[in-house]
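Below: protein 1.
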Amino acid sequence: MSNPSPQRPGSNRPNYLYSIVSVALVLFALGFFALTALNAQLVVQQLKEKVNLIIELHADGDEGARAILREVEKMPFVREKSAEYISKEQAAEIMREDFGEDFLKLDLPNPLYDVITFNVRASYMDPDSLETIRTTLIEREGITDVYYQESLVNDIADNIRSVGLAAAVILLLFIGIAVTLIHNTVRLALYANRFLIKNMELVGASWEFISRPFLRRAMVHGLVSGSIASLGLLLLYLWIQADVPGLRALQDWTGMIMLFVLLLALGMAINTLSTYYVVRKYLRMRVDDLY
């Protein structure tokens, strides 16, 4: 026995077109929030890696300072190409440019120190890791102390924790809304087929046999909806990038591809599970209840 067609020709095509478009819009809204959260995470990472740490050096001469610089550059927590040696003479020149020629105009010794500045990788930008880094560096001969803006680091950590929690709650809320809307859309699309589903059971077809064509179609529709949503997000992202050039430095194509794959999987999974539930619901109902 071959599978009967789950719909009569031309009977309810508009319902399925409406279903595909509606699911695509829901997935687009969910994807837009996820894409915003992804780019916000990249912005936070950039901000973390812009916090300066300053190593104050003993007066061991230029050669000794550059030897320490080479060591610092190889350390795993240092962001690549961020370490820089600034001699006290260079520091005095910078101060003159900032504060004018009156700076150090008295005939006094230069009170500044040779320093090395660097940025840490984003994964190390928390108070405990920075304190460990400071302790490790101070133990090295030739280093007097390590400074960073502790209050700024603490503020960044607290704000990231709060924003991350809020984003997680909103994301779960969006997923709940998406599941509900997609399920209701699928239920409405299958409503016109309720008599066909029940008639197939009455002539002796098994529930699995009845469900199979509907589930296949649900997977295809979910895939199409996810593709439409992903394409819409990609076009929107490229359009925004064209208007805001600064976003080009933040692009994460790996994250984008993972998001698109997730939207495809969600579209297929929610569509298929909702179809399975609705078909089984109609099969359990009596004929009189279908009217």
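Below: protein 2.
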Amino acid sequence: MTNLEKIICLLALMLLAISNNVSAQNNNIAFTYDADGNMESRCIVPLTPTEIISVEFPEQKITIYPNPTQGEICVEIRPLNLTEENFLQLFDSSGRLLETKKITSEQTFLEISGSSGAYLLNIHLGTNVSKWKIIKK
């Protein structure tokens, strides 16, 4: 991505945030990283209470539902490459790590036992990392 494309993308995101009065609780933010840990892309997806969220890596699709949740979420990864290290991490809104869980099948269930609010879910699939905002009602 060229510097001009980065500036245009940043300006578009800023205008979107200003014009729609975007609130962090009403959006999902997903990031992708390269093998060296450099962020490659950032995607903002507005959520509705019944929406299923999904994002596609070059060879995998991640789906998370329900979000918002009453406590339990399902993380689906298809196809799951079991030869790589796959795990997820759940953080509270202050950045404290609450749980780390290995991903061993295409469907992983995670119980969010904390209070209502926003949580951050990091999904590590080999060298790819995506970050998700999860809302617990």
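The first strand starts at residue 27 and ends at 33.
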